[in-house]
């Protein structure tokens, strides 16, 4: 038996709205709003618990330590921790906001994962994303790798790779631009890599307004690192026009699960040809279902506002497929009408469940952003650090931890307060014990 395990990012204690992500419409539009880290973390935990309760395997991905002081010291801010914060707040508040960002909660960007059934060496492969398009995310890869190694430590089953070179030619945003299509989670599958531009080939035209964050070369490198057969990887370009409309990752315009690809009709460049290539490359025995949402039913603008495609598409224990969507989808008339139509149409998606993830949504990430998908067989699942797996007791434990340590609100002025740093580090030090992660943070290793 093979399970798709979702490892959801636990929102960190410094969750704030800094508007750091150019190209992410929701992030920019809510810049400088007052955030509620406690509510954000509890909303995420409620979703994790709900997935566990319906019979899915659910894991927890710990936050990163923020503020990250190393980048501030590297660019000349010196003194005690408090002095570094004070100087950065005075002379470069935008940089300080970046070093406080809790964006690692969106673990769809943490890494790209290939299951053992697809890899020639029979191991589950992980490559942390370099996220070099945005400074506030480019400081994540080393901690992400530390966390992955602490969660998936058994070298008999798991292989970890260093993130790709940290420059634009190999821009890599992780699983947000990758999905896997297969008859089942345990079957050999087709890994679909979606890129926005090429680092080396100028003939491949990218967007003109917003940056393309995933390159073809990065996707090809990951397929090589993960020891995939040529027949098990396909590389398709995202439509540059939708990137310029705020579709900064493929998972904002398409999502796949087993033998279903759910996408907008403007998701890919030369959509008809792209979908034909995917159909021809599919290696399963079951039919591949492509549920293509027409623009006249749901515009790109509605898709971005509601994050319809940033929903999770999951297979329930019954074998039925469910769309796990943000409440914003139910509140958008066009999107709600399409979902109702889709559930009654002839396709494998038969259920929908809406979740309140407002704190994450306002910063530009929906249900699919919050989770890293890892397909594991029974032996591999047993080799995972058991303390990072959701259970009744773990939910109670983590909820109590959040309520103990998190603030109800964080404003821009709070970022100059050294007590926020102290609170955050103390909370995370305790969390590493709750999740049996060891010393994964720089402040613990110092």
Shape: globular
The low-confidence parts are none
Largest sheet: 3 strands, mixed
Q: Report the end-to-end length measured between terminal Cα atoms.
A: 42 Å
- By DSSP (H or I, 4+ residues per run), the number of helices equals 18
Total strand segments: 15
Radius of gyration from CA coordinates: 21 Å
Helix share of residues? Answer: 25-40%
Rounded average pLDDT: 94
Strand content: 15-25%
Helix/strand/pairing class, anyone? alpha/beta
Give, in spatial order, the strands making up the sheet with the most strands: 2-1-15
Could you describe the 3D structure shown?
The structure is a single chain. By secondary structure, the chain is α/β, with parallel strands linked by helices. It has 18 helices and 15 strands. It has helices spanning 25-29, 37-53, 69-74, 81-91, 93-100, 135-138, 141-151, 216-225, 240-243, 271-281, 300-306, 327-331, 333-344, 358-361, 378-383, 392-405, 418-434, 442-445; strands at 2-9, 58-61, 111-114, 124-128, 158-161, 178-181, 190-195, 233-237, 254-257, 260-264, 289-293, 312-315, 321-326, 349-355, 371-377. The strands form five sheets. It has a three-stranded mixed sheet. The chain has a three-stranded mixed sheet with strand order 3-4-5. Strands 6-7-8 form a three-stranded mixed sheet, with helices on both faces. A hairpin with a 5-residue loop joins strand 12 and strand 13. Helix 4 (81-91) crosses helix 5 (93-100). The protein is globular, with a radius of gyration of 21 Å. 53% of the residues are buried.
